[in-house]
Fold these 2 entries.
Entry 1:
Amino acid sequence: MILRHTFSPPTSSSANRRLNHLCGALDEHLRILETACQVKIAHRHEQFKIDGLKRDATRALEVLQAMYELADKPIEPETIQLMLATDASLKATSGKACEGSAFGGLTTRRADLRARSDNQATYLANIASCDITFGIGPAGTGKTYLAVAAAVDALTRNSVQRIVLTRPAVEAGEKLGYLPGDLAQKVDPYLRPLYDALYDLMGADKVAKAFERGQLEIAPLAFMRGRTLNHAFVILDEAQNTTPEQMKMFLTRLGFASKCVVTGDVSQIDLAEGQISGLIDAERVLRRLDGVAITHFTTSDVVRHPLVARIVDAYALARKG
């Protein structure tokens, strides 16, 4: 059924400024909303008309109203994409707000940080209650970002003395050859996503000071052998690119008063053909072990550009075909 919704914000000098922020330059924000919700939006001054299927038009209206509440200042396109992704994930989890989605208590620089789906809320609860937590799912579901946020919170509250972040240095289908520079410069490209998360959650100055104090460490997985990590929050990212031997080595580094989170996407394995992924093997071996929690994410948990979820689904469907 085709439905037409109308939306008429109040008119005033301040309201005109909000309308400009709402629509964006050359109605950029409305075009984003049209594409994501598959509707047509027309407006004349403060009068908006939304045409589309009932479900799509209703969703567009809800997001448009939420955007208007934020329009006292300019709205970034990324904010709209995030609103749309969050809205989609909530619809996929029975159409109501997730229990625990506003999980208070994580102390980071991001005041707006919250779980945006049931699976994300479960993931954070597992991290809080279990010593070892696996987060397995497609790109853009917040696996690494939320793990780093939980680690920053634990460090801020002095629950741990340091954060250790590690990834296997495996090339994603590319042959990079011998990289120039010292050891830190050689491995830096592999670890850059972890730096990005830290800068966003702590700020560059605090990250630099934490490195100086030894509270932060980022290293390739190979550097973990032979170590015991006490009083630490340890995160292994891109774990699908470990071998079973590497995974066992990493998990047995866990020391006293420590917590470990392992994240990965089993649909993006970059190991040589025929090699078994340590993440897949660990899930099989450890899934019934007390103290170990496994959270599976789906495309409904993706909080990047709405196209990301559709791309993941398209590739999954192609592989099945």
Note: The first strand starts at residue 2 and ends at 7.
Entry 2:
Amino acid sequence: MADDTILKVDNLKVYFPVSNGFLKKKSFVKAVDGISFDIKKGETFGLVGESGCGKSTTGRAIVKIYKPTDGIVEFEGKDVTKIKGTDIKQFKKDMQMIFQDPYASLNPRMTVGEIIREPMDIHGIYDTKEEREKRVRELLEIVGLKPDHIRRYPHEFSGGQRQRIGIARTLALNPKFIVCDEPISALDVSIQAQVINLLEEIQEKMGISYLFIAHDLSMVKHISDRIGVMYLGNMVEVGNSDDVYHHPLHPYTQALLSSVPIPDPKAAGLKKRIVLEGELPSPIDPPSGCVFRTRCPKATERCAQEKPKLRSVDGRQVACFLYDEK
């Protein structure tokens, strides 16, 4: 692992068993089917794709909420799929997660102060209760809330404020890496930009690395240094955020970007929309060869027979036979 790489994911697979009856052969939902990527220290890596593509499962496997079926997840050079005992406690301190629904992830019976202080109590950070309460007030100010909010309950706050509380709790252990699992999708559009700006400010001050999971490519482009595009459990394109956003290579990425709304009516009128035909295939029985071929307007016979691998093209990686060397 390179010195500046904090996380490396290699051939990660997460399969969930499905019951088909007593005598029938067991089948699996292939939520994540062999993806690989890495994230550098202080970098934000955006992971995008349709609902059900496996991006949230990827994040939860990285933080050990889900157990990987196969593959390696290295954090600071250690394979986290194999760590045990005291190493797990240190790992959970260094890697935290911001969840999609801020209300569901906060205990309604605990005050804001208790919610943020709880990780410090568990990990024994700071010697006294007074020191922990002082840190809680500091964290509330960092995320844009008032110190006197410490004695209120989650139901007394708006959705955006609750997400800020969730972020403060995540920062309580001074993590090195945060998985942001669609942290803005449940918020109003006017609040989304505020949370994104807050995450950027925190990263600049603390040097934290992010895995930012979302389905909104324009928002991911704004916050991310690099972007990975997932489809049906597979990574189809990885590259610099500007390159992926302005010059997408994979047909699926092109279709995703064609659906991003443009605020200028004249420019929007000139934009060509790529409409994907057919339904998203089932992850229980994905298509043979390229998983995108059943909806791809450029698919060939080869796409049904072989599964394309990520290969370097113009400074990024893309899994598509259109870019095979002639």
Note: The chain is about 35% helix and 25% strand.
